Amino acid sequence: MATATPSRSYALPAPLPLDGGQALADASIAYETYGELAADKGNAILVCHALTGDQYLASAHPVTGKPGWWERMVGPGKPIDTDRYHVICANVIGSCMGSTGPASAGPDCQPYAMRFPVITVRDMVRGLVALLDGLGIARLHAVVGGSMGGMQALSLAANFPERAARVLAIATTARHSAQNIAFHEVGRQAIMADPDWREGDYYAHDTAPDAGLSVARMAAHITYLSEAGLTEKFGRRLQDREAKSFGFDADFQVESYLRYQGSGFTRRFDANSYLYITRAMDYFDIAEEHGGKLADAFAGSSARFCLVSFDTDWLYPTAESRHVVHALNAAGAPVSFVELSAPYGHDSFLLDVPALDRVVQGFLDG
Amino acid sequence: MATATPSRSYALPAPLPLDGGQALADASIAYETYGELAADKGNAILVCHALTGDQYLASAHPVTGKPGWWERMVGPGKPIDTDRYHVICANVIGSCMGSTGPASAGPDCQPYAMRFPVITVRDMVRGLVALLDGLGIARLHAVVGGSMGGMQALSLAANFPERAARVLAIATTARHSAQNIAFHEVGRQAIMADPDWREGDYYAHDTAPDAGLSVARMAAHITYLSEAGLTEKFGRRLQDREAKSFGFDADFQVESYLRYQGSGFTRRFDANSYLYITRAMDYFDIAEEHGGKLADAFAGSSARFCLVSFDTDWLYPTAESRHVVHALNAAGAPVSFVELSAPYGHDSFLLDVPALDRVVQGFLDG
Questions:
Q1: C-alpha to C-alpha distance for B220 and B231, rounded to whole angstroms
Q2: Residue B320: is it exposed, middle or buried by C-beta count within 10 angstroms (0-12/13-18/19+)?
Q3: Cβ distance B267 to B63 under 8 Å?
Q4: Chosen from B179, B231, B294 to mutate, greatest number of chain A CBs within 10 A
Q5: B330 φ, ψ (degrees, to nearest 5)
Q6: This prediction's pTM
Q7: pLDDT at B138
Q8: Pick from A181, A250, A255: CB nearest B255
Q9: What is the value of ipTM here, to two decimals?
């Protein structure tokens, strides 16, 4: 495990302007860093987290006690080598691990709940850039992310082109598809259908919309795995029994696994944050932000890009990465692209795929 | 619209034996017929319905008023030609359109609710065969079905091989995969998480678990459509507005469509039936019923088979149909197989795919 400095919080010195037209006052960003910042501040790598991720990139999660979510990638001698690089990972605004979000106190000292402004991925990136300003880091060695982290990496490249020399976007997309939106809408409806949601005002109550959030997580979790991966991992195998029960218990291992994923998630994540962050992802369309043409979004970039997709990822399939690569080509940006073969579906970027390690290390050190 | 005789009900003369070990007493089967039965009773075609289907194959649905679910396929001069064939369609046991299911009164005159026995697809077929017995139809000209209807067609062929001369199974599978089970489990958990579900005992109350059932339907509905079909139909287009609302209304057309699908469904379907029928589908594995080898299931068959899959169906992809075809080949059964190209995903079997019409007509009349 990499040695982490204790989780820090950066109070933004000015209100954060948002795409929705409001500004978020008194916001703060919780972050972790790993490795030493060079005297010239030229060795910083920003890693952006996914929908339900957080700043505990390579250090134990304070709630679950589990290892950091990318321990296998980040640490001394690892592909993102903390002996060489100063690695920063910050909780996005709207989330619930220390950065300002719907559970945070608003101006009236009560939790924002649904009075929190709807944010976008670009707003998250504005928060991250404000943090970099505070840290005095003018230009990153690289910005790196998978899934929603990749969206942030691409958004940073499009909107703050001078802030990163390298952009590594893994298992991601430049826009949410109708199917992506549809799955998120199922999750939101599951949360909002839970009477314990109380229009978002559940913080002062003993109960939170855990049942709805759990269903939302279960639905989403299926999209993170490949059909073949599920078959290999679970197939039709029964859970701790010899025969079907002819009841509604979790007879099948895959049922038991999904229930566990759902209930475990509610212990570490805020339902309102799930609403806000899925909304931000559904709104995500870099081309739309830049006059409708994706290539135009990257016209001002001087960064080198690397896109990585996985052949079994049906959430953000290879075609989405290729779409970005074509736009970068049209914009004249240097870009490399690789589709990796891995059985785990979208979650491959988090799992043991040695080919990904080599691509990441090669791109960052090259 | 084909002219339908009024919906009839057949009271089973004996308790229906079930795979779970119980027997269902005093069960009845609601059905519709179209076209005249020949004097030799040799022109009967049984059409089996899908998860949320019913006996209103080619006549208006009494709740929604909408045309029958396969009007385009069944009627005078249509591919399943009611000028030639006597077409029977019955509501499966466990459902809620007149056949005995969880909403029906049990022996104590109260609704069964969750005291209804867990059933299997083979149990549904036992009910259908009992109906055929009652109608005096010893051997069908054909049994036909798509999705869960195709499962019933295959199950009838495997378990009652003398009862059908032709078996036409469309967009289906011989077993539910881990991913299939996972999506159904999300739906069941959504229903059971709804406080209005009340452990299934909601019939005497003013409210039913509509919110949970609606979420279940939304999740399932995504699996019925292809990603490309969703993109073509909705893309990222907004619903009745010029710009994003920066709120949680249904900004996108696909959100509005899904909500409509969910809420409309609750008006015509019973939540407990949804639990029981999805369970039956998840239990479905014809090979397991026959010693573990699918070919053995069809060893006694004298029927001709036709399997049809759709290239964009990711719920029951072509590989599942091919798996059945290989088993039928191994069993020495005559089988034809076609993968059709259609943009609509799993729902293609219900929609305007002229190539399907030709395959159906050719197989039935050949």
A1: 17
A2: buried
A3: yes
A4: B179
A5: -65, -30
A6: 0.96
A7: 98
A8: A181
A9: 0.95
